Amino acid sequence: MNRKGILRFKLIGVVLALALAVTIPAGYAAATEEDYDWGRDHHFGFYIIDPIKTDAGYVSGTMIDAIKVRWLDFQYTLHTSATLIGEIGKELRVYRGIPYAAPPVGNLRWKPPQPVTPWEGIRECTKFCPMAAQYPFPESFFWGAIPESGMSEDVLYLNVVTPAKKENERLPVMVFFHGGGLTTGSNSYDGYNAPPLPQHGVVWVTIQHRIGAIGYLAHPALTAESPQGASGNYGQLDLIAALKWVQKNIAAFGGDPHNVTIIGQSGGGAKVNFLMASPLAKGLFHRAVCQSGFSTGGTALATAEQGGVNLAAKLGISDPGPNGLAALRAKSWQEIVTATAIPGSGYSTGFTVDNWSLTDTIGNIFRAGMQHDVPYMASLAGAEVTAATPAMANLLLTMSDNQHSNIYVYVFTQVPEGWKSQGVYGWHGSDVSSMWGEEATINLFLGALLPATLTPDPGLTEKDFWVSEFMMSMLAHFAATGNPSVKHLGVKWPAYKNPQQYYLDIGYRPLVNPGFSTLTTKQPPR
Asked: Is 301 helix (H, G, I), strand (E, B) or coil?
C-alpha cells in the first residue's frame, strides 16, 4: 500500500473529564485535567492518519482512544457523560461514512445495491452519514432528536473502528447491525462506535442500510422488473453488500476477512437470523450473535406485494404496473415513510420470502437444518423470558442437532443495585451497554426502555463494571475462536445441546445453568 507523504494532522480539540467515583477494573480509564498529558494531543484530539486504500479509493479517518457520550433524556435535555468511554493511551483508528454501495436514490430506489463509483484522491471519512429515512422525524430521543435534514435515503455507508497498527494483523472482525425493528434506528452515533470493545482486539464495523418501506417494500411491478423475480428485502441486500465490502477491504484495516462475526441486538438480531438463513450470505461470515431478536418469520411474496399495493393506494397510486412504480419512485421519502404510519395503511415492514434472498421462513430453514453452519449465540434479557421461551429453546435444539458448529445461549440478568431495589429486571438492551463498555451511561434508557420514574442514578457498583468487562472479553474471544469461554475470568461455558440445554446466566458472577426450555417467567437479577 502506498502511504508515503500522506500524513496530515488536524487537532480538533481537547475534551476534559471528571474521574469516576468508583473503582474501575482493567479495560476502563478516567482522567482529570491534572491527569492529562498536554504534550500528547492524541488523547482527546483527532488527526488524519495515512489513508487506506479500498477497492473504490483511498480513505482517511481519525484516531481516538476515549470518547464522552452525549444523549437526550426523556425531557429532551442534552447530557454529556462525565465518564470517559475507552482506555487512554490505547489508540484506535476510526473511519466514519465509508461508502459500500451507490446511493439508492431515483431509479435505484427499491433495487439491489449497486457498486460504488470510484473516487480520485483521498476521501476524508470523519463524519457519520445521515440517519436512514424513517418516521417520525425528528426521531425520538432514544436515537437523538434527528431533524428531517439529518435523514436521507443516501445511507449505504459503514464505519470502521480498528485497533490494528499494521495491515497484516488479521484481527477478528465484528459487524454490528442496529436495532429498532426494521423501521427505525441508526449506527451513525459515537456510542455505537465507541472504543472499549475494539480495544479488546477486534475490528468493529457498523452498517447503515435502508429500513422501513424504503428498505423492505415488495410490489408486483418491482417483482416484474427484477431479473430474479423478487422484491422486498432491500435492506438485507444492503447488509450482504456491506459484508462483501468487508471481504474485499477489511484486511487493509488490519482485519481478517476469514474471521467475521455478525452481531445484532433486537431488530439487529432479526437481521442476523435472516443472514443465517439466506443463501446469498454464504461464506460472508463465520460466527453469528443474535441478541434479543430471535426472528423466525417471513411473509409470502404475494402477501408482501399486496402490502406494497396498499401503501401505494394510500399515496394515491392505483396502477400496480410500471407506471405506478414510476409514480412511487417520484414520491419523496418523507411522503412514503409518513404513509406507512397512517392507521389502516395495509402495509407492514417485514422480511419477504422472495425465493431468492430468503427461500422460506427463517424458522422453516432452521428446522430443516439449511442455515449456515457457524458458531452461533442467542440471548434474552432477564425480563424477556416469557411463556414463549420454550419455543425458542426447542428451535435452538433443532438447529444444534442439524449443524456441526456449537450454539451458545445466555440470559442477561445483571441490574445495578439502585434500580434492582426499585424492582427492575434485566431490560431489553441491557446487555448492549455492557458489551460497549458504556455502563456509566445506561440512564439514557430512562423513558425509552425503562420507566422515566426510576431514579436517574442506577446505583452502579464494581460488579456492573466487572460484568461489562466480562461481556467485552467474552464477545472478543467468541469472535476470535468461536468459543465464548473466558479462562482469565474463570468462566467455562458449555454448548447448548440436549439433554442439559445449558445457558449462561450473566450476572455477577456468571452461572452455568441447565434447562433453558424450562424458563417461562422473567428472570430476577442476582
From this structure: helix
